[in-house]
Design goal:
Largest sheet of chain A: none
Structural class of chain A: mainly alpha
Strand content of chain A: under 5%
Number of helices of chain A: 9
Helix content of chain A: over 70%
Chains: A mainly alpha, B mainly alpha, C mainly alpha
Oligomer: heterotrimer
Largest interface: A-B, 46 and 33 residues
Shape of chain B: rod-shaped
Number of helices of chain B: 2
Number of strands of chain B: 0
Number of domains of chain A: 1
Radius of gyration of chain A: 21 Å
Shape of chain A: globular
Structural class of chain B: mainly alpha
Largest sheet of chain B: none
Strand content of chain B: under 5%
Helix content of chain B: over 70%
Order of helices and strands of chain A: HHHHHHHHH
């Protein structure tokens, strides 16, 4: 088991192992996303209070869950890099950051679009929205730091430290924003309660969530492979890969 | 099918632009995420191949 | 232990030789508060409400300026590598630097606050609460800024970058300090917020020096 883990750390081995992953998981995810979208848009029932705008839930909620999972995966990769000095883990963390950032951005945009007909406003400073905004800021900070460090040619370990510091701070920030909102909650505004969802609603939600996860895995693997080739371009096997096709 | 005809689907009791707009943005973002690595892979392939060919044809060790 | 005090002494000597290192952020702080006041207008009621927040945010921003110069110099001179290579602990080094940084940044600030408060029409109670809030939150701010400075130490002109990295982590202390100010304003019990700020302080004290020294070691080993 440990041997497999160790071999996984070699860029060349990982590259060979992961050859089919992007396409396979990509196709699988597109299938799931298509199926979930069609169900959510055409067959799922409209909400009692919100009407058809609840269909946005099928793209908004899974994106939120996956954006947070991406941060956790990025932090774990960073920890692996710092503890065991496996370069591939650093490249994995680097590859995950833009994906997570774009998903957090997507959560905010779809949330705003959902909010306008439902609450009458594009944005409201509630706890969840503000927490997601902070998550986006953390992602952007990591990306900015990585760009600055790579320009100078330094290695990415401060980025890994930043990812871990962010992980530790994430619960604290969430709690404080939660508390801030309950203190400052405007009297006229209440979030609608989420009632128990019938299966016609949570099954497409799960399908979309699975689709998102597979999608992220496919794109993440694809990015890691690009990173490997870019950094190992002088090796014989990389040259063979480029020349053979 | 919840909607009776195509017009109903696009209108969605006034919410059509919002719902469809949200899905459009979603697939746009996911599409960009999908395309960017594919483009980079293609560029990398040709870059590495060109570097490789340069070296071989020059015979020099400058690079 | 002597290394701790020697580092602090060295920092003070540095600040005495280059007073700009701590005077410039202080002047920056004053100017930012001034800009806020100009933006809001001379209306006493409006200034009263927002004054504490302005002072707090201005102090957060000025810390970013001074954090940059606190660490960069050692890296550029090469004395950081000396510390890493010697048997002295980087933890003590970063703690000592943070303490000196705090003394030089926030002590003058806390002394200035009553005078600024008078200018912003704060009454005596509000000024006391403001001083208490700044006192409680400042060590956390300094420790977080030192983490940011250590991460970007090898990069040129990293002041704004430190801000981008560290400002999300300023959110919890900021929320609790403004809660403190509001509670004092409404004559409610301030102690929950005091306890929260002290908790955050100990959390930062326990974790930030490790992150700082890890990043310093990384920078010195390159």
């Amino acid at each position: 088991m440990l041997g497999w883990f160790h071999r996984l750390g070699s860029p060349k081995t990982f590259f060979g192992m992961s050859q089919s992953w992007p396409k396979t998981f990509g196709l699988l995810s597109l299938l799931l996303l298509a199926f979930g979208t069609v169900w959510g848009l055409l067959f799922a029932p409209p909400d009692y209070q919100q009407g058809h705008s609840v269909r946005i839930m099928y793209v908004h909620v899974p994106a939120a869950a996956v954006a947070q999972s991406c941060y956790l995966i990025m932090a774990i990769s960073s920890a692996v890099f710092l503890i065991w000095n496996i370069k591939l883990a650093d490249w994995a963390a680097k590859s995950m950051a833009p994906i997570g950032a774009s998903l957090a951005f997507l959560v905010l945009i779809t949330g705003a679009i959902w909010g306008k007909p439902t609450w009458g406003t594009w944005w409201v400073w509630d706890a969840r929205l503000t927490s997601t905004l902070v998550l986006l800021m953390l992602y952007l900070g990591i990306i900015v730091l990585r760009n600055a460090l790579e320009e100078k040619g330094n290695d990415g370990r401060p980025c890994a430290v930043l990812a871990l510091v962010g992980l530790v701070n994430l619960p604290i920030i969430k709690y404080s924003v939660d508390w801030w909102f309950t203190l400052h909650q405007p009297a006229s505004f209440t979030l609608t309660e989420k009632p128990k969802m019938p299966p016609e609603m949570w099954i497409p939600l799960l399908i979309m969530a699975a689709g998102y996860y597979f999608f992220v895995f496919s794109v993440w693997t694809s990015r890691i492979r690009n990173e490997i080739i870019s950094r190992e371009r002088k090796t014989a096997w990389a040259k063979a890969w480029a020349g053979s096709q | 099918m919840i909607f009776e005809n195509l017009e109903d689907f696009f209108w969605m009791e006034g919410l059509g632009p919002f719902v469809l707009g949200a899905y459009f943005v979603t697939f746009g973002v996911l599409g960009i995420n999908l395309l960017l690595p594919m483009i980079r892979e293609k560029n990398l392939r040709s870059d590495v191949r060109n570097e490789n060919n340069e070296l071989r044809s020059d015979g020099r060790f400058e690079e | 232990m002597t290394f701790f005090f020697k580092t602090i002494a060295r920092e003070f000597l540095n600040y005495r030789r280059k007073p700009g290192l701590f005077l410039n952020p202080l002047i920056f702080f004053g100017l930012v508060v001034f800009l806020f006041v100009l933006g809001l207008g001379p209306d006493e009621a409006k200034l009263n409400q927002a004054a504490s927040i302005f002072i707090l945010v201005a102090s957060l921003l000025s810390v970013l300026m001074s954090a940059e110069s606190a660490y960069d110099q050692d890296y550029d001179e090469g004395s950081l590598e000396l510390v890493v290579v010697s048997s002295n602990s980087l933890l003590i080094y970063s703690l000592a630097k943070s303490l000196a940084h705090w003394v030089v940044t926030f002590l003058p600030l806390i002394l200035l606050v009553p005078f600024i408060g008078i200018g912003l029409f704060l009454d005596v109670e509000q000024i006391w609460v403001l001083c208490l809030g700044i006192l409680l939150v400042s060590p956390t701010i300094i420790l977080l800024a030192s983490v940011g400075a250590a991460m970007t130490i090898s990069l040129p002109r990293n002041g704004v970058l430190i801000g981008i990295l560290v400002l999300p982590f300023y959110v919890p202390p900021l929320i609790f300090v403004t809660g403190l100010f509001e509670a004092a304003l409404l004559k409610q019990n301030v102690f929950p917020y005091v306890y929260w700020l002290i908790a955050l302080l100990f959390l930062a004290l326990g974790l930030a020096p490790f992150a700082t020294s890890a990043c310093l070691r990384i920078a010195a080993e390159d």
